[in-house]
From TrEMBL:
The keyword Transmembrane helix applies. It comes from Semnornis frantzii. It is a multi-pass membrane protein. GO terms for cellular component: bicellular tight junction; plasma membrane. Its main location: other. The lineage of its organism: Eukaryota, Metazoa, Chordata, Craniata, Vertebrata. The keyword Cell membrane applies. One of its GO terms (molecular function) is structural molecule activity. Keywords: Cell junction, Cell membrane, Membrane, Tight junction, Transmembrane, Transmembrane helix. Pfam families: PMP22_Claudin (PF00822). This is CLD19 protein. It comes from the Eukaryota. The gene is Cldn19.
C-alpha cells in the first residue's frame, strides 16, 4: 500500500488504543465508581487525565489520520494524470465520519478536562442562624 495509507492506518490504530486507555482511566476517575481512591480530588485528577488522553491522543491522532488521507485524495484529484475525472477518488462518507468522530472525541475529552478538582475547603461553608427569623415569629 501507499505510504499515506499505511501512515493513516497506523495513526488510527494508535488512536483506538489510546482511546481505549482513555475510557479505562476515565471510568476509574468517575465519582460514581468505587474503583481506586476514595478521595474526590484524586478521582477528579484521574478523570482529567482520561480527558487529556482523549483530547491529545485519540482526537488528534484521528484528526491527523483523516486529514492526511483527505489531503492526499485532494492532491491526486487535481493532479494532471491520464486517469479520467470520473474515475478519480473523491471524499467519501468515511472521511466525514472520521472528522465528526475526532471532533466529538475532542469535545468529550475537553468536557472531562473541565472537571478539574476543586481545592479542599476547610471550615464550615454555611452558617446556621442562631435566632429565628422575624418572618417566622409573626406566623
Amino acid at each position: 500500500l501507499a505510504v499515506h495509507v499505511q501512515t493513516s492506518r497506523a495513526l488510527m490504530v494508535i488512536s483506538l488504543l489510546l482511546g481505549f486507555f482513555g475510557i479505562i482511566v476515565s471510568v476509574v476517575g468517575m465519582k460514581c465508581t468505587k474503583v481506586g481512591e476514595e478521595d474526590p480530588v484524586t478521582k477528579s485528577r484521574i478523570a482529567v487525565a482520561g480527558g487529556v488522553l482523549f483530547v491529545l491522543s485519540a482526537g488528534l491522532c484521528t484528526l491527523a489520520a483523516v486529514s492526511l488521507y483527505a489531503t492526499q485524495v485532494t492532491y491526486e484529484f487535481f493532479r494532471e494524470s491520464s486517469v479520467p475525472i470520473n474515475a478519480r477518488y473523491e471524499f467519501g462518507s468515511a472521511l466525514f465520519i472520521g472528522w465528526g468522530a475526532a471532533s466529538l472525541t475532542m469535545l468529550g475529552g475537553s468536557l472531562l478536562c473541565c472537571s478539574c478538582p476543586a481545592e479542599v475547603r476547610q471550615g464550615q461553608q454555611y452558617y446556621r442562624q442562631s435566632q429565628a427569623s422575624m418572618a417566622r415569629q409573626y406566623v
